[in-house]
Specification:
276 residues, alpha/beta, Rossmann fold, seven-stranded parallel sheet, 8 helices, 9 strands, NAD(P)-bd_dom_sf, SDR family oxidoreductase
Length: 276
């Protein structure tokens, strides 16, 4: 039995953990060849090994998506390893929350950089490869569709108190999505976005004392949603619970499958019916 993505080259940023890892595994289950990225090499290698254990191919491109030259290195890894690129999922990111009067310039810029500037640079670096491939295929009379899936959030579609930086970045990526759908339609590239609602990950699974943190480039970032607040949120979700990373990955896959070849410039909310 063959997969719907057999031989397709997929680059997934932030795929060492959480939702990104599940996206990588889902695409691999359909036959895609993966370029795995994570800030830390350890989780990236673990995901790559899990992909290989499924019988699919994977290589690792570790490092921060915000570092100078990363975008070019990410694209080059896919081209050098597998001969091209077919799917880009801009997933990497984290939250660094505060109300506006307490938010530092560093907090603002860090979140804009990872959620908005990094995807822009990755897409810019991919353009020469995609353009050349599209011209070759058009000359041969072939219609080959490629996919870009940008990750947004209901914070970007409706705003969220305490997340002005994240909400702005996630709203911005929707603008990137609509613009790139127009620019890259001539290349047969479908550009869409998935806006996540409440999904159970390390960024939402806070401790009761509110002291959960993650380490990002030597910074300890407070994360997590208070369990009582998360419980209240669950009661507001029409489907009755928060989503799983596997379900989040399924929403991304919808825009990677060939059935979505005539859908572009759109976003779907994966949130169990919950909207802000």
């Amino acid at each position: 039995m063959t997969g719907k993505l057999d031989g397709r080259v997929a680059l997934v940023s932030g795929s060492g953990r959480g939702i990104g890892r599940e996206i990588a595994l889902k695409l691999a289950s359909e036959g895609a060849r993966l370029v795995i990225n994570d800030l830390d090499a350890g989780p990236a290698n673990e995901t790559a090994e899990a992909v290989r254990a499924m019988g699919a191919e994977a290589v690792v491109c570790a490092g921060s998506v915000t570092e100078v030259g990363f975008a070019e290195r990410f694209i080059k890894t896919g081209v050098d390893s597998f001969g091209g690129l077919d799917i880009i999922v801009n997933n990497a990111g984290y939250t660094w929350d505060s109300v506006v009067q307490k938010m530092s310039d560093e907090q603002w810029q860090a979140i804009i950089d990872v959620h908005l500037t990094a995807p822009f640079k990755i897409l810019r670096a991919a353009q020469p490869v995609i353009s050349a491939k599209a011209k070759e295929e058009a000359a041969a009379g072939q219609e080959v569709f490629r996919k870009v899936v940008n990750i947004s959030s209901i914070a970007g579609t409706g705003g969220n108190a305490g997340q002005i930086n994240y909400s702005a970045a996630k709203a911005g990526i929707l603008g990137v999505t609509r613009t790139m759908a127009k620019e890259w339609g001539r290349y047969k590239v479908n550009v869409n976005a998935v806006a996540f609602g409440p999904i159970r990950t390390r960024l939402t699974e806070g401790s009761a004392d509110g002291d959960s943190t993650i380490k990002v480039e030597e910074k300890e970032i407070k994360v997590g949603v208070n369990p009582d607040l998360l419980s209240q949120m669950e009661r507001m979700i029409p489907l009755g619970r928060v989503g799983t990373p596997e379900e989040a990955a399924g929403a991304v896959y919808l825009f990677c499958a060939p059935e979505s070849n005539f859908i572009s410039g759109q976003h779907v909310i994966c949130g169990g019916g919950f909207v802000i």
